[in-house]
Amino acid sequence: MIDQDTFVPLVDLKAQYASIQGEVDEAVIRAIRRTDFILGEDVGLFETEFAAFCQAKHALGVASGTDALNVACRALDIGEGDEVIVPAFTFIATALGVTLAGGKPVFVDVDADTGLIDPTKIEAAITEKTRAIIPVHLYGQCVDLDPILAIAKKHGLAVIEDAAQAHGAEIDGKRAGSMGTMACFSFYPGKNLGAYGDGGAITTNDDEVFEKLRLLRNWGSTKKYHHETMGLNSRLDTVQAAILRIKLARLDGWNQTRREHAAAYDAALAGLPGVTLTKTNAKSVYHLYVLRMDERDAALERLQAAKLGAGLHYPFAVHQLGAYAWLGHSKGDFPVSEDWAARCLSLPIYAEMPTDAVPRAAAVLAQG
Ligand SMILES: Cc1ncc(COP(=O)(O)O)c(C=O)c1O
């Protein structure tokens, strides 16, 4: 029997904590007893384990996903006068990472089927000021980077993957975080790999870039009071790293369960009038399960009334936000991104989600 009364949130951090509480509590207490709060034992161990998970040579913990993007841009010496290509449809932090480093984001529209940056529109946005491209592995999908890496090579540009939503996502056996010059991850609590506070990481296969990143996250120094460059204070806390190590060991399993929930949604929602499902050619980790529909706002209200924690990711494309009004864009500049923003709708998804959330959501959406 379907339970219609239980509230199903968009993501349930309490359910996940309940499943790992003993191990997490012990690891946190161990870290506190060691008092190695800054760049302590668990940070180094987590960095090694996370690099292996991402199929990357190096991983470096930083304070957040936004800082990861900022530090990655700084490692490329991106600053005033430099342009970086980002998709117009993403979370604002992708563009903010560029602006915080002093560069200018240049938007490119997204693909209608996937919501990912449209590689066929990138070259038209390249100028003599362009330094890098930031494809975003949105919703847990993995961008097909081959065409983007080819464009980057042709024009001498770096590629920074924004993998904040895609820990463990794959395309053709390659993981998010293993393909670009660098990749930036967020460990915001609701992410597939979430800390119990803010956190982030950058992966890279390039030894030189890695050394630069190490300086930048720690006031420009690797040796106390020897500051070789103007860096930031942006480190992953030891306590957070201790928690992340426990969750990382379970992440592939959790991601697989998310895929199963997504497959159940796909089957239940296929063919519903007015509903467009997101197509993905990669092994998504379904950070979010997003569809598009007309009358989206009414559907959102009906889902919430039925105790289903639906959401919008994202209700505005980045060029539509006040924060980037100074770039001077207007409605219609990135029509596919604007359509995604107007019609996207996220349904609850997390490993511990009760399976009857799927038929409940499908029944509500069928009432449209
Ligand atoms: C695509 C994307 N990029 C960057 C970020 C920034 O990460 P954080 O919240 O850890 O700063 C997020 C998440 O918040 C995100 O979803």
On the 0 to 100 scale, the average pLDDT is 97
Instruction: Name the strands of the widest sheet in spatial order.
Output: 1-9-8-5-4-2-3
Low-confidence stretches: none
- Quaternary state reads single chain
Q: Estimate nothing, just give the exact number of structural domains.
A: 2
Share of residues in strands: 5-15%
Order of helices and strands: HHEHEHEEHEEEEEHHEEHHEH
- Could you say which overall geometry the principal axes of the C-alpha atoms support? globular
Total helix count?
10
What share of the residues lie within helices? 25-40%
Provide the gyration radius in Å: 20 Å
Labels describing this entry:
single chain; 368 residues; alpha/beta; Aspartate Aminotransferase, domain 2; Aspartate Aminotransferase, domain 1; 2 domains; seven-stranded mixed β-sheet; three-stranded antiparallel β-sheet; 10 helices; 12 strands; binds pyridoxal-5'-phosphate
Kindly describe this structure.
The chain has 368 residues and is of the alpha/beta class. The chain has 2 domains: 226 residues, Aspartate Aminotransferase, domain 2; 115 residues, Aspartate Aminotransferase, domain 1 (Alpha-Beta Complex). The protein has 10 helices and 12 strands. Strands 1-9-8-5-4-2-3 form a 7-stranded mixed β-sheet, with helices on both faces. The longest helix has 32 residues. It binds pyridoxal-5'-phosphate. The site of pyridoxal-5'-phosphate has 15 residues, from helix 3 and helix 4. The site of pyridoxal-5'-phosphate (PLP) has 15 residues, from helix 3 and helix 4.
